[in-house]
Design goal:
The chain has 526 residues and is α/β, with parallel strands linked by helices. It is 37% helix and 20% strand. It is built from 17 helices and 23 strands. Helix 5 packs parallel to helix 6 (178-199), helix 6 packs antiparallel against helix 11 and helix 9 (247-253) runs antiparallel to helix 12 (369-382). The two termini are 43 Å apart.
Length: 526
């Protein structure tokens, strides 16, 4: 491993828990005769729940039982502790309820949050926390073990560096299959990768170090799969991009001392005969965004290390899908650049030409993400895949409309839109469809180029951004997700404010559904 990659790896999130794995049955290493230290219940009746609340509040003080009924000691003298996860969550999005897989994921996260809240006295001296899941909870998880474990594993991860040795957790009574645990671990690893990248400071992660990190990741994944041809990565540096006519990506990176680049990752399943379908993921990777000459106010610039969040989500989904050996060809483009201020920076009024020949006038240098995506989308469209999905922390307008917990979805294909929308609800990683309003395309008119990169009106900003991107995908089925990749408060899968792994589970589940059904229309109906 190179020193650069090693330095970046030191920023990978750590977990506060680890699992004791048995050499025989499932992932449960506990003795059948051991006394569980914690019992996790689901949906207790009100009388029992009230009793637990009284005991819990005597130990932990007041708290909101709808979030997690973290309980004190049981009254039977066993010395056990307990927590209760809700049997259902009163959450709806536009009248739509979350699916069973999403509910189980959130139950796992809530159970983990309860264990993390245990006082020090609840942890045995041997450092192994024996946890028994109630019969009712085990029954409810018969079809969703993977999702429960994914939520549990992810909630245990912390953004803080230098955490203590993780506490070992041993589940009792839940007969976890090795397959479910492996799938949950892969999903969690992919989410952790995305969160870790978004969390890295911009002086640690820039286009050059990002390239080093991805090269090492590909090597390690090939070794893990024991297949040197499992994955490949090709890097288009600035000279190659200029020669290929990528004027937009090159323009964005002009102001930085670190040159822009495009990373192309490829996965081909074994045997290759399974690769009849092809999906391309595209991620916006602005490792820091000052806004350029249209510089951001300091309070808006503060968290702009996260402006590469779309590329992190795309890479996380790519990792999860390849570990699951999804039966299709998968390509992932990461468009990397810094949007910095210098004498070489692009200026408002400049005109640059994209790879597909479309000339673009720079109306606003802070609308740079769509520029780097445009050239990457040109490459993607030239491959004529069955589906393109791009992910980007693109507009404040999307956040104004939907907040940070629901991402904006645009698509030129109704089946692709339906697939992502329904899958988002099912796995509790939601998106909400917004329209591509053809009439608004006139807002991108330019008197000196084919179009401008942004509108002069603040209205419909997420829509005009998506309309701009549509100019570079041709007739290929395409979906654009305007995501946030950040949370301003702890909750659900994420124990702390900061970087999230939004869209990783959504894209992973959607692409697997597409691979299973063979076409978008059938996958959307599943």
């Amino acid at each position: 491993m190179t020193p650069v990659a090693s330095a970046l790896n030191s920023w990978i999130l750590s977990s506060k828990f680890s699992f004791c794995l048995a050499s025989h049955s499932g992932v449960n290493a506990s003795s059948e005769h051991s006394t569980p230290r914690v019992v996790v219940h689901v949906g207790l009746d009100s009388e029992t729940e009230d009793a637990w609340l009284v005991a819990a509040r005597a130990v932990a003080g007041d708290f909101k039982p709808k979030v997690c009924v973290f309980a004190g000691r049981a009254d039977d003298g066993s010395g056990q502790w307990a927590c209760v996860v809700p049997a259902s969550l009163p959450r709806k999005i536009g009248g739509h309820s979350l699916g069973a897989r999403g509910l189980s994921t959130l139950q796992g996260a809530i159970a983990c949050a309860g264990l993390l809240a245990l006082p020090a006295g609840a942890v045995p001296k041997d450092g192994v926390l024996h946890v028994r899941l109630s019969k009712a909870l085990c029954t409810s998880l018969e079809q969703t073990q993977e999702e429960f474990l994914t939520g549990f594993l992810q909630r245990a991860h912390t953004l803080k560096k230098g955490t203590s040795q993780p506490l070992k957790v041993s589940f009792e009574s839940l007969d976890v299959s090795a397959e479910a645990f492996s799938a949950a671990q892969s999903a969690c690893d992919a989410m952790t990768l995305a969160r870790s990248l978004v969390n890295m400071p911009a002086n640690i992660l820039n286009p050059e170090t990002y390239e080093h990190f991805v090269r090492e990741l590909v090597k390690s994944e090939c070794a893990r799969a024991q297949n040197p041809n499992h994955l490949s990565v090709e890097v288009f540096h600035a000279e190659r991009l200029a020669a290929d006519g990528c004027g937009l990506l090159c323009a964005v990176g002009k102001g930085s001392d670190v040159t822009p680049r495009l990373l192309k990752l490829q996965y081909t399943p074994v045997p290759s005969s399974r690769a009849s379908r092809h999906v391309v993921l595209v991620g916006k990777g602005i490792t820091f965004d000052t806004g350029g000459l249209d510089v951001k106010p300091s309070n808006f610039m503060r968290n702009m290390k996260k402006d590469m969040g779309g590329s992190a989500a795309a890479l996380g989904a790519f990792l999860s899908l390849t570990r699951r050996q999804v039966p299709l060809r998968l390509t992932c483009y990461l468009a990397l650049a810094e949007n910095m201020v210098s004498g070489a920076s692009m200026r408002p009024g400049d005109v640059y030409t994209a790879r597909n020949g479309v000339s673009v006038e720079i109306d606003n240098t802070d609308a740079e993400g769509r520029l780097v995506l445009a050239d990457a989308l040109c490459y993607a469209a030239e491959e004529k895949p069955d589906w393109i999905v791009d992910l980007a922390t693109l507009t404040g307008a999307a956040r104004t409309a939907l907040g940070g917990g629901v991402d904006a979805l645009f698509s030129n294909d109704k089946a692709a839109e339906d697939l992502l929308f329904r899958t988002g609800l099912e796995v509790a990683d939601p998106v909400w469809p917004l329209p591509l309003v053809d009439e608004y395309e006139a807002l991108l008119d330019s008197s000196v180029a084919d179009c401008a990169n942004s509108s002069t009106t603040p209205q419909g900003g997420a829509i005009t951004a998506a309309l701009f991107l549509r100019k570079f995908v041709g007739k290929v089925p395409w979906s654009h997700i305007d995501t946030y990749m950040w949370t301003d408060r702890a909750g659900d899968l994420f124990a702390e404010p900061g970087a999230t792994a939004k869209c990783v589970r959504l894209v992973d589940a959607s692409v697997r559904a597409f691979a299973s059904k063979g076409n978008l229309a059938s996958a959307a109906l599943n």
